[in-house]
């Protein structure tokens, strides 16, 4: 235990005894003799907020992270006091506040300690910049594990690591390199089967130490601002993540095409190459929904312009691509070329929208176009202006979506790779320097972009991508993991990073498939595609300076494998879309690490490779060359091998065959998985019959299936369809009940049930209690039957 003298010696200050206590509805204030005020807010029964002021004064309460629609409300709240402590009780949590030290202990109602302060809040005055370095230290619990924290390229369990958050352009980053592009100061702790989360909502550079410096201490601190954190309790990890995601928000449903396969490169040009690329996809029958134009489409890298030599008539080109089922996504960067003859520069200059340095000059930095100025996206007026800049692109030229890059912001040829710290920002009316605004700069840029796109693609849905992000950015944008490398290690990283992002509230994420820097061989590319089709955002992108990275750039075996897996993704689109809907509505991560899936099984706490795609599909990428399979941990339960329907019993590590054209893929028994026919792009076919893959289970399993128009907003008016299925298998029967909600009428009239693992021969089929002659339901062998889509119950009996 650190003594107070030791603390003082290190220049730290810490609260002393409480001299005043006050309650104001859901807020509690504890004031110490030396002027520290702790404010505890009860947001929900299992969600609390802790804020600490020094010198008796709180900062203005403003956050970019918190969603306006975050839910509030608790059912019970009591306060008690003993000689040594105050006690706050909700229906889920007990919070003790120590009267002498202001230290906190949080336990469940049975008294199991979930989280407790070590020193708790302490701080150092910052003489250079003013304000404080604010610090919090907690006791690491026995066998505690830690997860989350955005895009950290390291083992998924953060125990023993120290990380920090400062959005950085990190070309060709290495494993364990830190920080990367995103700042998400949120983690989940797990011990004794109790999960909780801590979100430190502070935009300065933040640091987290997970029992790295001292085994028994977990701490976090920031270069400035306030000690301001949210606490979420499970005990299930799902409740923690959903609690956090509810607070920081979820995106609306994107158009379904955004979940298709996307092809990108730095850069496809001129028009003839883009058109040839599109033709090749259709010719080789490899499904694809979007093509990307990187910076070279611009005139001298000036945002919102076109290089008319490369793209003489972008409107016509994009219309023609669209005819063929391709959407065009273009890049927009934050740096605006300093050029007196350039209208965007002129406008921003006239209106005073560029960031300025501490003493007045404009902040200048070199990016692709050379010297640039940078709009202050933390100014709401600048965001409005920026949103309007998209008008021509979207509503006149027919651009479908926008990709915001370099928005950390990245600055070239300076050691810090970003804006100087004295750069000033509006911060929505709370002026500050870059120290505070840096981590939200990219988020506010993409927020402005999102607002512009949303306005100008209406009545269609917006789709936006960003590289930099702060907590809550998921409300506006999808993202990717930045400039990775074409190595096997980076395939491992892509898997871990995507899972981690999903555990950090940002599910709409993917990696540059195949690697951005350097060149993959065909084998690595094939293995990466096999993983990438199970990521919410599925795009091949590469730096283009090392040869091609299209599905056909390797030998024809690889092309066939790539096609096979992209086709699988297109078949699974209704399942993926349902996953997205659940993410959007409930904050449920689309991809789930095994620890999320089964936290009670300690084997899962240190697994990195296996993950659950949605609810019922288990995936484990092959991450080594020359493999014919791999060892993997099968989580508890019974699983069907997707490729041959053989049954695997989980709860142990085992070998799984996976030749180059196979990824280890399993379906949870009892699952019902909707599948589309293969289409070359979303909406190509009018679907006449929908496949439901039904995986027999002895017992009950629930599945769900959400549908709507795949774009637009009619679903908000009830024009959606939500089906939930309850499968109940017995020795000689299989019953499927369907519950239906919503008015959407899909194009198909019937379901084809593909029955997997049925342990009996079908003798009779009843639909809604009426026996249907077997020749009418067309049993094909023993495993396919056709039924009307709106059945309430199908009962299959046999011997
Ligand atoms: C950055 C991006 C990369 C892009 C390149 C050129 O490196 O991360 O995706 O291709 O800039 O715009």
UniProtKB/TrEMBL annotation:
CDD domains: GH31_glucosidase_II_MalA (cd06604), GH31_N (cd14752)
UniProt domain Glycoside hydrolase family 31 TIM barrel: residue ranges: 251-579
Pfam families xref list: DUF5110 (PF17137), Gal_mutarotas_2 (PF13802), Glyco_hydro_31_2nd (PF01055), Glyco_hydro_31_3rd (PF21365)
All copies of domain Glycosyl hydrolase family 31 C-terminal, residue ranges: 587-673
Source organism per UniProt: Maribacter arenosus
Domain DUF5110 residues, every copy: 689-757
Protein name: DUF4968 domain-containing protein
Keywords linked to the UniProt accession: Glycosidase, Hydrolase
